[in-house]
Amino acid sequence: MRIATLCIALAFAVLAPLRAEGARLKDIADIEGVRGNQLLGYGLVVGLNGTGDGKIDFTQKSISNMLEKQGIRVNPVDIKVKNVAAVMVTANLPAFSRPGSTIDVAVSSMGDAKSLQGGTLLLTALKGADGNTYAVAQGQTNLGGFSISEGGDSAQKNHPTVATIPQGAIVERSIPFDLFQSRKVRVVLREPDFTTMTSVVRSINARIGKPVALAVDSASVEVLLDQSAQADPIRVVSMLEQVVVDQDIGAKVIVNERTGTIVMGAHVTISKVALAHGNLNIAIRSETEASQPNALAAGETVEVTNTDVTVGEDVSALQIVGGEVTLGDVVKGLNALGATPRDLISIFSALKAAGALNAELVIM
Fold it and tell me: What is the pTM of this model?
């Protein structure tokens, strides 16, 4: 199999100019404390058409306990549960949620139910890590698929033992949190980097017009709220989110050996190297020359780097001179020859082992 279209498309990414790209702070960082909280509950889905749990002990006991709360005493052993399924209900409580608002929930079978299609989740308390109930869920399950079995034949679409209930839970309690109690806001980068953090501090101070931002480490920066900012802290946070930062993206090559997927950053380069892989031979030459204007022409003398990448299928010895070239030049040459994704993965691994790949190599 010849080179995949994916690798050809990815080559264009590495051929882009090497420069820092501006990004809004809200797209690369989070405000500390502004996050969701996970909720969990155990419940019963009823009304199934014979696709519920079999003779599952904890499902029978759950039904017996539920009926007893309704004033009906039943021996768990006498209960048939083919129309009922025991489930775990999960949800994410967004930051600043208030009582009365609704959130989505996911319903997952715990026993051997074949499908949750057409079922109804009974009232289920959703608790946080502290054991307190923050929401209650109830409603009809939405499967987005099906499972049918008749006469020995069966058909299934998607995953029938996991369902959702859009807006199926009502928030009963909010999580107490005062974002501005400390009179400062901490912004945390999703990808810690000292260079990017320096740009963040510089951009925030320039936007506000005061030296109010102080870097704590490579991941977080604290912005002090003066008296005027404390009067309207929401406006200050909104302004911080819109600050444009020159993000410094590290050189990285990500390889998935199972799928043959290769993703490369724009800053990836390789040092001078001689390489032979199978019947492929790669010669890389990078030379720096001085470019001078004509004797009577106006202009300045500048340095020009000439890069030459030669890929062949012979077995001759390779002589490599010069400095660094982009990995995109190598990929372009290999793509033109018809190297497979597996060839590229082996070549990248060898380059990293030789110390010639100036990037972090991540193999998934």
Answer: 0.67
